[in-house]
Specification:
With about 240 residues, the chain is α+β, with helices and mostly antiparallel strands. The chain is about 25% helix and about 20% strand. It has a seven-stranded antiparallel beta sheet with strand order 1-6-5-4-7-3-2. The protein is globular, with a radius of gyration of 17 Å. It starts with a strand and ends in a 5-residue tail after the last strand.
């Protein structure tokens, strides 16, 4: 069963909300458009077909948010840890506002879809490939030298535009391989076993005999060549 998983800190660095990659795009919503369009262009199928990118703002039933009750508990633990650690007030207020999002029956979200693109190949590879570089890697890019945004930073732009710092990725590549995964960039916190975790967690289901991360998308999230889906900041 798919669920939210935050790896253990295991004596590592405590992670706060001030993510350097996300802060690069702070106060610049236009970066979201620029970066997602650039990624789509870099993944075009051919020069004979125009790349199409669509942006849709909609409202999602709270019950359709993947394991929303579990996610609310995680947000509450993040808030409690931030207060216990006497974190900056901005961090504490972030989680207070994030929790308010789930007080309503509907959650605002934005869907970004691209067409006439290759999709994200390599979703069944745990170490490399376009899917891995986007979803599970930091500071990693496998783009060609002549592609735009080849430093692997632009993928942080959608998180800056999210009240929940949460993005859901969905893809269908040219081999008809499908993959779906959620990613939340929050803060270190204590889990149910009172163990300290990392700040970044994932909504996923492990494959058998592998540590990979493929989850069959539901009809709600599936759209051919749909590359990004994330919950956006209400203005």
């Amino acid at each position: 069963m798919a669920s939210w998983k935050f790896p253990l800190n295991d004596g590592g660095i405590r992670e706060g909300l001030n993510d350097a990659g996300i802060e690069t795009f702070a106060g610049s919503p236009a970066s979201l458009v620029r970066e997602t369009i650039q990624n789509a262009i870099d993944a075009k199928i051919s020069d004979s077909k125009p790349v199409i990118v669509k942006y849709n703002c909609e409202f999602l039933l709270k019950s359709m948010f993947p394991e929303w009750k579990e996610f609310v508990q995680i947000l509450q633990r993040c808030l409690e840890f931030a207060e216990l650690a006497e974190s900056h007030l901005d961090e504490i207020n972030f989680f207070r506002e994030a929790l308010k999002v789930f007080e309503d029956d509907h959650i605002p979200f934005m869907k970004v879809s691209d067409y006439n693109t290759t999709g994200l190949s390599g979703s069944d590879n745990d170490l490399k490939g376009k899917w891995f570089a986007l979803v599970k890697a930091v500071g990693v890019s496998n783009k060609a030298d002549d592609d735009g945004g080849s430093f692997g930073i632009g993928k942080a732009a959608p998180f800056e535009c999210s009240m929940l710092r949460t993005v859901f990725y969905n893809t269908v590549d040219l081999e008809n391989k499908r993959a779906f995964q959620g990613s939340a960039r929050l803060v270190s916190h204590y889990n149910e076993q009172e163990q300290l975790t990392r700040g970044t967690g994932f909504f996923w289901k492990p494959k058998r005999k592998s540590s990979g991360v493929r989850v069959q998308p539901t009809s709600l999230f599936y759209e051919r060549r749909d590359r990004y889906r994330y919950f956006y900041r209400r203005i």
